[in-house]
Write a structure and sequence with these properties.
Rossmann fold; 12 helices; 15% strand; 434 Repressor (Amino-terminal Domain); 12 strands; homodimer; four-stranded parallel beta sheet; alpha/beta
Amino acid sequence: MRSNQITIKDIARILGISASTVSRALKNHPDISIETKNAVNDLAEKLKYQPNAVALSLKNSRSNTIGVIIPEIVHYFFSSVISGIEDVASQNGYTVIICQSNESYEREVENTKALLSHRVDGILVSISKNTTDFTHLTDIQESGIPLVFFDRVANGIEADQVIIDDLEASYRATRHLIESGCKRIAHFAGPLNLLIGQHRLDGYLKALEEARIPVDKSLIIEADSFEKAHNAILELIEFRNLPDGIFAVNDLTAIGAMQTLQKKGIKIPDQVSIVGFSDGRFSGITDPTLTSVDQHGYEMGTTAAEMLMEHIFKSPENRTPEIKILQADLIVRGSSVKK
Amino acid sequence: MRSNQITIKDIARILGISASTVSRALKNHPDISIETKNAVNDLAEKLKYQPNAVALSLKNSRSNTIGVIIPEIVHYFFSSVISGIEDVASQNGYTVIICQSNESYEREVENTKALLSHRVDGILVSISKNTTDFTHLTDIQESGIPLVFFDRVANGIEADQVIIDDLEASYRATRHLIESGCKRIAHFAGPLNLLIGQHRLDGYLKALEEARIPVDKSLIIEADSFEKAHNAILELIEFRNLPDGIFAVNDLTAIGAMQTLQKKGIKIPDQVSIVGFSDGRFSGITDPTLTSVDQHGYEMGTTAAEMLMEHIFKSPENRTPEIKILQADLIVRGSSVKK
């Protein structure tokens, strides 16, 4: 395998041209002349130069470590994903190191640099809410390091990804409320500039449309926290516009709505049924317990880690990027089942 | 600074003795003769050998990364600690990589190896429940890598540590119940083979003793989960042994007790006052809200990271290990304040 150690610099030295010219010639860059491209390619072939020498040399000196970049570990969903990743990594003799972007683009870039300089064998990323420039992520791929996205993906980068079918899950959550007899269903929505907020709203709308329930815009409210749900409920009561069902974009919002309703003497689920999303640690400890969508964080972690391991153990040429879409399950509990 | 590169092996070669003899001679080990010690020390001085050459050489090629080994990131407390660590690290131009032991001694050892082989500049550790052999931790120190323990420390290792005064916090939590008028106070305790369970019980006992309330053993119950609290309450009701106050070892236990009491028609705090421990995400969303002990995870993180940074930037000889004990605060809420 010594031939793998031929580098772009060797070719540049022999031909008396710059390394960046060699690099661009190998990539068939339009700025480079046909003559130069032919010379570079001929020599590369003779010397058995491997375009992904970096990746191969890294593979030959594996660190047996994979890196994970995650927005916020405080979320139960993300910590479940990490458990799944760690179990698969451990089965393969790998150690996982985790970096938290804390929803900051700058930290995500720093995290990426740190993982690359520590020569991890592969990287799993869920991008921060504020990441719109993806250069640091394409840098990972250009370094020859396998990359898999999970949950929050960078649109437009060709890489493996594992995601949840948010629209379908929200559709089923809303349909469940309709089937339980609700006629006026509110949606407490997330920020609609985020894909996640948009998909969950779309699922809600799809279920209403299918059941021929007209959309009442006064029942679609941007409220994605405990406090915002509290205020939204007070307002709905004040304007005598109370729904008989609420589908909330996350569990804490659902719980905020539930408690405010209960304090006002409104019975859950008899007068208002409630469904949350993401089935965190809270759903089992409320009274009544909360119907919610289980996003299968652990399964997302094992799936993403298995894709990464496959990518590490096979050479990158032999595989095309895959997208795996996991189905989320609705877990029906007390908050939506009328006695 | 080339003189830093003189190693123990150089001295051993020149004197014709083994490296381990040189190492022990430099440490003034009793097994080594005075003559050998003198020869080694003389040569070391002439060659300007630095005992901590490893540490210095690592410092000269800093990775600007620190590693954290944490039992379980799913706990709100630990994720708060990480936020504190990351903020201090970021201010110092450092990136944090996190490894989760998942309460497994074996994974903790693997994590340690991974962080050492990635040449992090310092390591922060909170040990797993199952760690009783500390060799991997002394290995860190012997590699010349600064080490700081937080929350769960390895007894007997001389290193910086940041801990919470658990006994004092539990004493204050119990005293608060006494001052609110409770006469029969139960303690829902953690496993008593763990220091944390023992300290919290001791704090409870100290408060009772001070108030001359006799200890009723039937009111000290090993119950440290939502389900165990539920069962414990049912049993107390069945045996007509209900207390008028409960100090629980953690918040989920307190919430389990509260909900079971409420389902049986018992009013909180009018009939039973409840205090939890660790002030996680749940305490604000229960009804009534839960009185609990705030362990200041974020502050623990910043304190530990600052100690580590000081250790990284100063050479180890110039400092002696420090123990910082943080005071936890009781946050009084609805579950213990009679109207």
